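pasting for ref. prot 1 ->
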Amino acid sequence: MMKRLVLYNILSFIVLCSMAQPLPVKNVILLITDGTSTSLLSAARWYQTYLDSTQNTLFIDPYICGLVRTHSSDAPIGDSAPTTSCYVSGMPSQTGFISTYPVATDHDLLPVDPKRAYQPLATVLEAAKILQNKSTGLVVTCEFPHATPADCSAHTYSRSKYNVIIPQMVHNHLDVVVAGGVSYLSENLQNDLKDEGYSVYLDDIEGFRKCQKTPVWALFGESSMPYWLEADHQKTPSLAEMTRKAINLLSQNPDGFFLMVEGSKVDWAAHDNDAKNALIEFLEFDKACEEAFRFAKENGETAIVILPDHGTGSVTIGNAKSNHGYDKLSLQQLMSPIDNYKLSNYTMSDKLKKADTSEWPRLFETYFGFTPQPAEITYLTTASDFDNSPLPKEERQNNLSMCKMLSQVLYGRTYFGFTTFGHTIENVFLAMYHPQNDILTGVSTNVDIFNYLCRQMGLTGKMNRLTEEIYADHHKVFEGYEVKIDSIDKYNRRLTVKNGKNVLVADSYANYVTFNKKRVDLNSVIVYVDKNNTFYLSQELRAYLEKK
């Protein structure tokens, strides 16, 4: 009897432990709405109700569970590159750093090891692929090498180094990429993808829709995809369609998948203080979240994490015009002023800069439904980037751009307000879905989000080890051997290592090396950092040189 009682207690303890810590899920979908402040979330909800009085909630509303404190390693207000880097690699980094360890400063917000500066950091996407044989995907509306998608699949200290980011993304064995950026995928890189069995669709929506298997790249638009307000919907898929297609393709893998979806251009519109396009882009993102929820509920093995990387602009409904009588304004009065806004601030400013000022009233009537006042016309001609201004450039050098000055003209006629053209320090919202309701609540940190993703993916305790395995310093890997670094061109370097008759050659940003003139494929990319003249690559390569 005593033995049975002890056995019963042990089994009960095991069951309780398993209930307290749900097992990892098969699939994880991370949805990031770039630059979405909590005030924009509220505005979007009201705007949706204005557009359809039967819709009083967003698709994400039932799943909102908390807030996230997101920041860089050395600054409370984060940039997209280091904030998303933290979500996927676990380390808050610095402005511009793409999944790369930061440089220590005298004002860091958390401990930073100066010895690790510039080391690439393995991401959960890379870990899912390398350690678990899961399929991986990226779906975004910006150009594919932009900060957030690059954070998941590339490594550099400068987000603007597209010539470093693009080959890494192409060679990092991604199963699905749906994004903007046709002009960024050179013919050589297209051939690299095709040689590895990829289907490549460039501004080919029908080909994309007919695609039935991975791996695949589908790009739309020369650079970023257009704002949904301005897009040709016969040629440009919605973010919801892109998300649905990616899920259908990735879910064919019996080992599961990791997918990152970004509503990229919420941030772009918010930077321009363009409320209408920020709202529309967010509502399109919300529809993409619905696609993820639908799949997860049917699948039963999928966790979903939804959050912004930071706030931008802090767009509000309520400004100086509503200082008095704000509590008497109807929803119609608050929202209707933007009904006739048919273009983004960015596109309209481009039209204004190319047109004679005599044509400006007609352009405003056509695209925004009002005739500007003479004072507004005069104000816009003083934009810093308006080449035909009557004022000399030196008298305009401290002025705003045409796009940002236009925002003040357009939204000065509405009840929308902004605090900045930049990012903000506010906490961002967190929404989650989990088949066993294993979610975070309250206020989390950006590191907490990384730890949660690791726990859901069965990667807890494995990420640092993976970083050391696939992104090891070549000085340590090949210590004692003859090592030489040569320039291939402006952006690329070649590492040659010799040990007797054995010769290993590694090119920057490739996914293979040559050993004694024979190709050896890798499961990760090779990263070269010019700041410290160092290659970061797989530790296992040393074993080749030791062969006899």
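and prot 2 ->
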Amino acid sequence: MSNPRFPILGTDIPPMLGRANIMQRIWNDLTKTTPSNLSIIGPRFVGKTVIMNALAQRIANEESPYEFVLHWHLGHVAPTSDEDFITKLCERLRDCLAQSQADTSEYRKHLEDHSFSNLAEVADFLEEEGWPILMLWDGFDKPLGQGKLTGHLWDQMRSMFYGKKHKIVTATRKPLSELIRSQDAITSPFWNIFDMNPVRVDAFDEQDREAIIKELSAHSFQAGAKTELANWSAGFPPLFLGVLNQIATDIPGGQVDNETVNRAAKKALENLSDVISAMWQDCPAGAKDLYSHLVDRGDLLFDDAGKDERDCLIEKGFARKSGNKLTASCRMLKAYIQGAGPDAGSMARLFGSWEDYQANIRSLLEHRLAHISRFDDRLHRLVARAIEDIPDFPDDCLNNLTSIEERALDLIWQREFGESKVIPQEILDYWDQVDPSGKIVQRIKEQEGNTVPGDRGIQCGILQLLTGSRIRFEARARYATKDTYVLINAIHSFRNRDQHPGGQTIHVGVAVSAIMSCLELLACLDRESPA
């Protein structure tokens, strides 16, 4: 689209459009007598970064309690350890202070030593000077989801903000409590410093839409046109602005009626399909099924829909509450699904019940197998044979696990060490240096010529060391990856379960998990092939 009137996705951070109520809520909470630490929550593409950027600009241009604004997008390069987090925060604070007209050289020098004690000391000095900091942590989902940051770090962060003039605003797709992966981290009192009522960012409301439409001063929108614009886009920012851009491209000005909007929306759909696809894929299966139900069968009593599923659809504008009913909205999504093919909304029909799952899971496994090249005919046939026993004979489907594990390990050793399967001396010396009392190295030394032992359990241990999957060991493999080791180890455990059932039958769901591990092992070996 040439010369779009409004910002399009993928460009630099655009100016904020609409959102007056949300911005005022944030501003009031940050500038009141006892300011709050805030959490902004909203789905992808809804404009959280735009709001954070607008907030930073407003703090810089208007009178506020804050001397400095530190805007940090943690989703770009997420910290991978407590030390990495402190280092990055020190660097960003130092850069932030460097932009001040005041003399902050002493504080910046103090931050060159990337330690929490120096960071906390500088924060205390700044508060004493009457120079509070507002920290904006955008993309906070990423570091929380990785689960690599400890509760100790968050305890340290709490000491910087709790009871202090410095404040923090985070932006995430889900509530913070749902993102914290580490049990150690979730117990930190840091999470209690945030206002219990997070700032939720959803689709543009009517006030937002009216304010944005007024930006097109050369166009006069009829009431019906505004309704159609909302019906097509559900007010979700990239869709709403995309249709407006198309309207501005189609007609230079004048009256905008229903048909003008309908034509523009259909044209814009092609350019917005990637965005719609990403939004749709972000929905969990239950939410997709609920939307398909609403499209196929009509309204549903609001209370009869699952809370998580309906909340997911509502925040994206895919559904709305009308009285006591939940109804589908966003005509662009409906058109996208219909255009994507007959199965785009059929997950409920395929896997909506346990009976459906059992009836269709074999087909899904076979489709996954078809994705993988037949790089080793025997291994491919072993996995295909195991799939054939799903779902009727779950115990039998695991009969091939031993053969699958053995064939996979043999392929790995051939790739890594050649037909002789002799482990290079330099690798053994390295393992011996890291763990002089290691049983695996001692066992290998018992073999003639450092060959790989025949015991498959020992071989799993060798693969663990070779891929760097054990703590303190660096990867020394030429081709094999940690993913391969994890899957081999899982299959080894499933194999033991099959060999020692103790009278307990294998549940179909467990058997499917075992076969999926075999499939993904096959895919890993395919990717790792020297050819």
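The chain is about 55% helix and 10% strand.
Residues 258-282 form the longest helix (25 residues).
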